[in-house]
Amino acid sequence: MTFEEILLQFKTAKPLLLLRAKNAAFIISFFQKVFSDANITTITNSELRSKLEGYMEELSYEERDEELEAGTLFDDFSVRAAQYIDKWSNSGFLRKYPNDEGEDLHELTPDTIKALKWLSDLERREHVGTNSRFKDIFFKLQKMIEQTNEDAEARIEELQKKKWAIEDEINLLKSGKKPSVFDETEIKEQFYDLNKMARELLADFSEVEQNFEQIRKDIQRKYTEKDVAKGTLLVFALDALDDIDQKPQGKSFKAFWEFLMDERRQQEFTQLTERLYQLLNEHNIDYNNDRFLKHLKRFLHVSGRKVIDSNRKLSEKISRVLSEKNLLERRRAMELIGDIRQMAYSLIETKIKDDDFIVIEDEPYINLFDRWEPGEEKVYVVKPKCTSC
């Protein structure tokens, strides 16, 4: 990145703006406690206000200069908590949207999640799992090369090697050899990495949903532009939807959702996570009662459902925008018809000569149920009445 690009990031990037805020420690510690530590992704406005009020009382927190308006510094914690939440929502640190009952819900924005994750990565870890990390890299590299090789003979050779290795291991186990298993260190490494990947996955969902929201805003902005034809707006909207489906992010999400909705996979995932925590307990491994993985399936379903709902809302938005455009066109047509009617009424008492009329060569094509499409144009030729015919 160049100097100018980095400078722009410091001025505009929301994660950096959050970290540079005067009360950053207060904001981030509260978000960490309410959302990350409690494994909560969504919370109601009333509950969030109550938790913030309690947190301010717990810290005996006093605002620094310019955090809130000067006139609010003597308000009680409940009033200031509400003002803080509004400010954080307007600043892009919190997302606010109504539920079906009209009550406001709040979530951390993807930018805020990035800031929390970066601070979490700064913490000194007791153990860094270099061994498990390298093995993951090695196996993923190996799989990528294998799965992109179109040479059938080479694939057969690789599969034969795996087959022989599996058969050798089976024979050794049958002969009484003790199976090779993870030791306590490897279990800790794998558990840490699984938790880290799972939390990053939830953060990715939030970003995907935000991308849908941006497309909705783009369509709304396009709609407010003057002289935008309905056909043009439709093409823009459908291209945006197609872009989502064809981009790697959209393809990946679709494949994931199908995988998550598979009942057999759900049962298998539940059994695996239950066995994981049983394993941790059997080896007396302290995991700080972190049961995030145990509830991951539910978190993923909730977050994934919001992405699906965002897509549905996007489709509804397109339909509503097009309907509004059609309504405006009909209103304009009715206004023109009304103008013609008034002009006709004004000529009722006027005597009109035959020379004032024109005659259409053929019968005009009129279909009240026909809708005009972009690019179509019907032309009718008219000429003065022939007096010599």
UniProtKB/TrEMBL annotation:
InterPro entries: DUF3375 (IPR021804)
Keyword Coiled coil: yes
Pfam families registered for this protein in UniProt: DUF3375
Name this protein carries in UniProt: Uncharacterized protein DUF3375
Ranges in a coiled coil: 142-169
Entry keyword annotation includes Coiled coil: yes
Superkingdom per UniProt: Bacteria
Keyword terms: Coiled coil
